[in-house]
Design brief:
about 375 residues, 10 helices
């Protein structure tokens, strides 16, 4: 694994994904990061106006350009932690201003560096937000794997901002160049996506960067059929997304408290909104946290952890997040507390849970999913 990110002016940064101890086997930067930096070395850009870096996965761009005191916008708490850890490893003091994905964008940036997000919904949101603050000197350079840049991608840049063109491919990466058209009217931010939660009177609202944003995730649907009812204690909706599991746990367990935890700012904001709009009386029993799994949460403090584990971190497919969720759940659960999760059958989490907890039981299964329970024993 290459941890050495070369800088075009000479030297290098040492970069790791977060957390470093995780056995994810993934590099902390990609060819698009390198391509962007090489391109900037040949270009002039306004250094008096704000520099804005969007979706920087582990801090490669931010640390390479730290002397320009950039604004750094991300939806990912893991990306924030990776940036801070890599800054420490490279002996760099924070000179940047972190902005979460729902924060106001800096006015009239001189240069915007954007790594393409995973979904077009998030890209549309970010391009619309940029259209509202771009000035006459603003330049945008976006980067991604060449296979992730399509004609439809370029049309979005042109629709929201103005004339757009691409670079040649290099190391299977490509750049997008866009100069916002000052004659173009600022675009309204795309509305939240909302749909009724079947079998309830609830309406579920979803910000742009939500997984299964347009409908109820089929794994979550299956787990909803097996949520406990009328139980007291402290519950955690781990990787909460829009908060459907935690919302229904609060509805079915009027004596319980539920913590909604996700590494996405937009996910936690969606979960909070869904509780406020659908079950406001339960707000005193809820807590919301943007966090890397259950990092920093007190041991032996929860009775039940609900989990629909992701199998990706940003653009990369990996199972290390699920493993960290299981490890953190065991630490945070009280003795006798349980982890209840839903997962695709082929992921074979049975063995992971048995190895970690010493036990596991199949609660239910269908052709695609399995619901597993593991109990923290003395």
């Amino acid at each position: 694994m290459n941890h050495h990110f070369p800088l075009p002016q000479g030297g290098e940064l040492i970069l790791h994904r977060y957390p470093r101890h995780a056995q994810h086997g993934l590099q902390a930067w990609d060819a698009a990061d390198e391509y962007i930096m090489n391109e900037l070395a040949t270009q002039e850009w306004s250094r008096e106006a704000p520099l804005l870096i969007v979706n920087d996965g582990c801090g490669a761009l931010t640390l390479a350009l730290h002397q320009h005191s950039p604004y750094v916008m991300t939806d990912s708490r893991v990306a924030e932690l990776a940036l801070n850890a890599n800054a420490l490893d490279n002996g760099l003091e924070p000179t940047w201003q972190l902005l979460d994905s729902l924060a106001p964008w800096p006015e009239q940036p001189g240069l915007v560096l954007l790594k393409l997000p995973k979904t077009n919904a998030m890209l549309e949101y970010q391009l619309a937000a940029l259209s509202r603050v771009a000035g006459p000197q603003t330049r945008l350079i976006a980067g991604a794997k060449a296979k992730d840049i399509h004609g439809s991608t370029l049309k979005l840049f042109e629709q929201y901002l103005g004339p757009t063109h691409t670079s040649l491919a290099w190391k299977k990466a490509r750049l997008i160049f866009c100069a916002p058209d000052p004659a173009k009217a600022p675009a309204p931010l795309p509305p939240l996506l909302a749909w009724p939660l079947e079998g309830t009177g609830f309406t579920i609202y979803n910000h742009a960067n939500l997984f299964s944003r347009a409908s109820l995730d089929i794994g979550a649907r299956f787990l909803l059929e097996h949520l406990p009812a009328d139980r007291p204690g402290r519950m955690i909706d781990l990787g909460c997304g829009n908060g459907v599991l935690g919302l229904m746990a609060l509805a079915r367990n009027p004596q319980a408290q539920v913590s909604f935890v996700d590494e996405s700012h937009m996910a936690v904001a969606s979960a909070r909104m869904n509780l406020e709009r659908n079950l406001p009386a339960a707000e005193p029993r809820a807590r919301f946290m943007v966090n890397n799994c259950l990092e920093g949460m007190a041991p032996d403090s929860a009775d039940l952890v609900l989990c629909n584990p992701p199998f990706h971190q940003q653009q990369a497919i990996t199972d290390h997040i699920a493993w960290q969720m299981f490890v953190d759940a065991k630490r945070v659960l009280r003795r006798g507390g349980e982890l209840l999760l839903v997962a695709n059958r082929h992921l074979d989490y049975h063995q992971k849970l048995k190895r970690l907890f010493g036990n596991q039981r199949v609660v239910a299964s269908n052709r695609k999913f399995v619901i597993l329970r593991a109990i923290k024993t003395p």
